[in-house]
Specification:
With about 260 residues, this protein is of the alpha+beta class. The protein has 5 helices and 11 strands, in the order ββαβααββββαβαβββ. Helix 1 runs parallel beside helix 2 and helix 4 packs parallel to helix 5. The longest helix is centred in the middle third of the chain and has 23 residues.
């Protein structure tokens, strides 16, 4: 969809994000992801997206399988590289020309997330016809583990999440004026909650408040698509099948850039 205006060409892009982890029926490293990846890719392609961001796709086998399927569908498959991908598990699949890609590890983290290589992965893409440049970022912030930790640790985790948000925000503040961006990821923060980290999240990234639907079966809103441009619509798609795509819902946004 293209909107023609005075000296401008505004296009509506369809952006998807999914955290691909599935807690059940098995636990942790045995989540049958290699069997679910074909379904994840096919479910994504049904939306005819322009950009797809994913998190928690671990290991060379799973990455290769996803890469092959998205490539056959006409997409690039960009991830930080085998060393980072083992811990971060994030990748971006754009339909457009990739100009550059950079990974920034988070400076602060808390166990057990500190064992992973969490951070934010940035891909610079260019629309072939309009030559418009766009930054696409995928990230996965510190998890909370409230059921495992005491109040002291919960506060410590909240401070780390705030530091991670600030690290992303500080990078965004250094961008050249006029550069537009899209951020998708599992932030592990409910922007609608009454907490310090939620208030900071909303202040730094106001468009996060447009994510009003639950994004997990646990009735939490922790996955987001955020943009410096206008978000026309954003929805979360649950999967009620016997073996769902993920513990998380697929997020879809229509963004005018």
């Amino acid at each position: 969809k293209v909107h023609i205006g005075f000296q401008s060409c505004i296009m509506t892009k369809t952006v998807l994000f999914l955290n691909c982890f599935l807690r059940s029926p098995n636990w942790f490293f045995s989540d049958n992801q290699v069997r679910r990846i074909p379904r994840i890719v096919l479910a994504s392609l049904e939306h005819s997206p322009d950009i797809v961001g994913v998190a928690e796709v671990f290991g060379d086998t799973n990455c290769s399988k996803m890469q092959n399927m998205f490539t056959q569908g006409g997409y690039s498959f960009i991830f930080p590289g085998s060393s980072h991908n083992t811990g971060l598990g994030c990748a971006i699949h754009p339909k457009y020309k990739v100009l550059a890609a950079t990974f920034f590890p988070f400076v602060h983290s808390v166990f057990p997330d500190s064992l992973a290589d969490k951070g934010f992965f940035i891909v610079q893409i260019e629309h072939k016809r309009t030559r418009k440049v766009l930054l696409v970022i995928v990230t996965h912030l510190q998890a909370t583990y409230n059921e495992w930790t005491d109040k002291h640790m919960i506060k410590k985790i909240e401070r780390v999440q705030m530091q991670q948000l600030l690290q992303i925000s500080q990078y965004m503040s250094k961008l050249r004026y006029g550069i537009e961006y899209i951020i998708c990821g599992d932030f592990n923060i409910d922007v609608h909650a009454r907490s310090r980290v939620s208030r900071l999240f909303a202040a730094l990234f106001p468009s996060a408040r447009l994510n009003i639907q639950y994004t997990t079966d646990e009735r939490k809103t922790i996955d987001y698509i955020i943009s410096s441009s206008d978000i026309e619509n954003i929805e979360a798609y649950s999967d009620s099948s016997t073996t769902p795509l993920s513990d998380h819902y697929l997020i879809r946004a229509e963004i005018r850039v």
